[in-house]
Design brief:
heterotrimer, A alpha+beta (120), B alpha+beta (359), C alpha/beta (126), A: alpha+beta, two-stranded antiparallel sheet, 3 helices, B: 359 residues, alpha+beta, three-stranded antiparallel β-sheet, 46% helix, 14% strand
Amino acid sequence: MFNFTPSILKNAASRPATRKYPFAKRELPEGVRGELYNDIDACIFCGMCSRKCPALCITVDKKAGTWTCDPFRCVYCGICADTCPTHCLHFHKAHRPPATERQMISMQGVPKAKKKAKAD
Amino acid sequence: MSNKTVIPFGPQHPVLPEPIHLKLVVEDEIVKEAVPALGYVHRGLEMLASKRDFNQMINVCERVCGICSMIHGTCFSQSIEEIMVVEVPARAEYLRVIWSELHRIHSHLLWLGLYADAFGFEALFMQFWKIRERIMDINEATAGNRVIVSVNVVGGVRKDLSPEQLDWILKELIIVEKEFKKLESTLLNDYTVKARTVGVGVMTYDEAYDLGAAGPTLRGSGVAQDIRLTGYGAYKHLDFEAVTHKDGDCYARSWVRFHEVYQSIDLVRQAIAALPAGDLAVKVKGNPEGETVVRVEQPRGECLYYVKGNGTKFLERVRIRTPTFANIPCLLNMLPGCELADVPVLVLSIDPCVSCTER
Amino acid sequence: MISNETPITLDNLVAQVGAKKQAGYRFVTLSTVALEDGSTDILYHFDKEMELSHFRLNVPADTTIPSVSGVYFSAFLAENEVKDLAGLEFDGLVVDYNRTLYLDPSVETIPLANNLKIKDKKEEKE
């Protein structure tokens, strides 16, 4: 008969199970894929991330040295960060905060010059 | 003189996780006939096989369903591995089992919560989902995302579990099991819950077998069929049996799913205890050529993948048949004869995952 | 080639499926794949005691295939889906959605055949 009463009494006597977000934020563990970020100075613009991405959200222009990611198409799978040869792609732990306009993540770097001068 | 009314159930209904439409022909509050109409969540994912290469297709297949996403990914990876004759390392197989069983636990907890909500017991619904949050935290800390974990690659897995993480998972599972046990008498012994579910939507052994039911819908009628027993992946090394109940009504199906949570917790403990050391994945070269049929056991039943490759990096055909697709004809068999107020509980008792059905 | 598969023809399709039902097999599903020469391969998957067995049926384009939903009721959903996505025609369906199960009534292309336009004679069918 009183099957649920122990749970009710325990819940009534303890703190709320929910957190008062946004005043109290949760501590996110390591390895959470929050927001994609490129360390543009280390990027060699090989385009590997744009080829492997399943959502086709990254565009790389080797000549102009630009790297663009559409954060609304990104599915946060992390394949780009795993296959990047220079490990310049990584994920912030925190998720993107809500915004009022759509914005692409565009980064401009220095395109690598061709090594024509080297003899060997 | 009784007249027939046609009542539309869905596509928006508080009890349904995804939209499905049923036209119920009702005569004096007893349902006489039901005709389903699907198509509200059709995304055309099978056609994407011609636009994404077979490595990217894993991510597409994972997104067929949010709740059983890891198991879809496992099934697809297994079919490509079978076509290309790739031997997955033992550690990867055990890791896949650990994450799959965690998905099964959180899927059944989600269903139990929705089921309690279907007959208005919102407090029990919240209790189940509070327990489920712990499993989502395990997913987030070990694999990076809460719902769609994306750890499968062709040839193995992408992420490893360190010994500290394994200890933490075991500790969390002890807490999950303890809190889950407290709710057992409320779900299975309570007078009101039983009055709403016992005897509703009965399906006999023969009907369930003939109509091609799958998963707990089949096992709730007494048929002991569980695709995990065929021994794919690391399941051949683990010790378990199919959970069945002989009554075939809504109570029986909820009983089966409740006890499958205990079984999954036990399987995770067995897999962690037997986890061998080794590589996470083998490198796969070349393109798949050939065809194969692979079946896995999802939380909702058996799922079949037919994959055909023709030597290029785009697969020729990926055909997915999910368990809810097989359970809808059973629903059409169970609905006639029940009362209108029992329809939400009945529809929910087959665990409809319509985004799986329609891909 | 998948293991445990038998090729059948259009004439003995319903008879063979009926024999499977008598032998106690469960109907799992049917799959279609379009081949390069324009014909379609239809595979019927059956299961008994956890062992799968298959039938393979090769039909040239524009053939009407007899429906097995009289033998196995649950086949009607799979066959309607094949009508929607692959554009094949079935004869004798228990419940016929007329290409509206997944797609909108105004859709005239076949999704899985690279969006070829469906032929005009198939549009009017009661």
